[in-house]
Design goal:
homodimer, DNA-binding
Chain lengths: 212, 212
DNA sequence: TCGTGATGTTATCACCTGTAACAATGTTAC
DNA sequence: GTAACATTGTTACAGGTGATAACATCACGA
């Protein structure tokens, strides 16, 4: 479904190049990884010359940065679907949603967190997009802490631990170091629960003993 | 210090190309990342033509694979320096050593775990090298479990959680998402301890209350 | 000594990112 | 309406890369 208002007439001006290039590049990324994204091939598929893309993307890396930004936005949306009515359940759920996002979109996730291909500090919008997604995780933890469900340890510490855990699990599973969700459906839940049990307030030592 | 037995005579045959290429590539990797490794540039620095390298490395990727393999061996060596006399202290220490390895060698670590650039199943030696390094971590956890220090949960679960945590923390810090060890010297310790407290056997609920 | 395999060489291909110079199209001011 | 300008295309090209083919040289064992 092209956005081009005059799709039938073959005009000199494409009319929707930036958007369609973004979409096609995203598709290529998801199917074949970031290394498969070539501006020339992209231009050819779009019926346009290669330098035309440079009118809209400073260079290849900035195109990748845009893909990563939209990836972080997708991640944030997915994380925000978690039911927050119970801070306790939300803690586990948000971890599982995080991991499942990475497993659903391994190539996109790798681009988002592939530090070498997209270093921090170069694309400010990318940096803030990452922080915003991360914020959902932190807010969830903060809520659980305010309710007294988790220990009163520094929020930054608890958040760092939670993020490290889900990010590490995501990365290790999509790279084949740990069994995938298909092979071990309950791995993520077990792993997340394990960390959570180290973070409980004293009056909530056993997860199983407490019911919503 | 060239291995070449006749370093002074400029011979047609280099004599030590594979080894020196590996070393120089490793140096380039550590300083500038995997993307900076070019066989042409490498050959030029070694005073040799580019195709000569293809006599010793099937392609660029197999050279990277060799670097990653030596990286896993270095990691294993570092992990094996951990004092195992106290299973309890070894648990924390091995986590800290793991994270510090990644922070000392960010580019090497990224290559080792950059799933896209070196996919699993393509270079068997690489896969086993990764498993062997991982084994040190698992053995340490198994020991602590046999001593009764950690819960009798499945070893694979506990190991997956521990590896995920340290790997995630390593990756997030070297990519600038979480504060580095310089900015937050005790972050790694706090994070590792947090997971550990969720894994303690019931009679060891408080880390601080137990002395070696 | 001689030839054979290992290890170099040069020449070349196909592909890539990125830039320069130019052309067609929209747009805005007069 | 039309002239001037900005936008977004185009072709041509520079420089770099991985990889292969065909040829040259050397070391070493039969």
């Amino acid at each position: 479904m092209p956005r081009n208002p005059t799709p039938l007439k073959a005009t000199y001006h494409h009319g929707d190049l930036p958007h369609q290039a973004h979409q096609l590049a995203l598709e290529t990324l998801r199917e074949h990884g970031d290394a498969a994204i070539s501006l020339r091939a992209l231009a050819k598929q779009l019926g346009v010359s290669a330098p035309a893309l440079y009118r809209h993307f400073i260079d290849r890396e900035s195109l990748l940065a845009e893909l990563a930004i939209s990836g972080f936005e997708s991640l944030r949306e997915r994380l925000q679907t978690v039911d927050q009515s119970s801070p306790r359940l939300a803690l586990v759920d948000i971890g599982l949603v995080y991991v499942s996002f990475a497993q659903d979109e391994p190539n996109l996730y790798r681009l988002m967190f592939g530090g070498r291909v997209l270093p921090r500090g170069v694309h400010p919008r990318l940096d803030v997009a990452g922080k915003i997604a991360f914020q959902v995780l932190e807010d969830t933890i903060a809520r659980a802490q305010q309710v007294g469900y988790v220990k009163p340890i520094p929020l930054s510490l608890m958040t760092a631990a939670a993020w490290s855990l889900v990010h590490g699990l995501a990365q290790l599973t999509i790279d084949g170091h740990l069994p995938s969700a298909k092979a071990e459906p309950h791995l993520a839940e077990g792993v997340v629960t394990l960390l959570l049990e180290g973070s409980l307030a004293n009056n909530e030592q056993q997860l199983k003993d407490t019911s919503p």
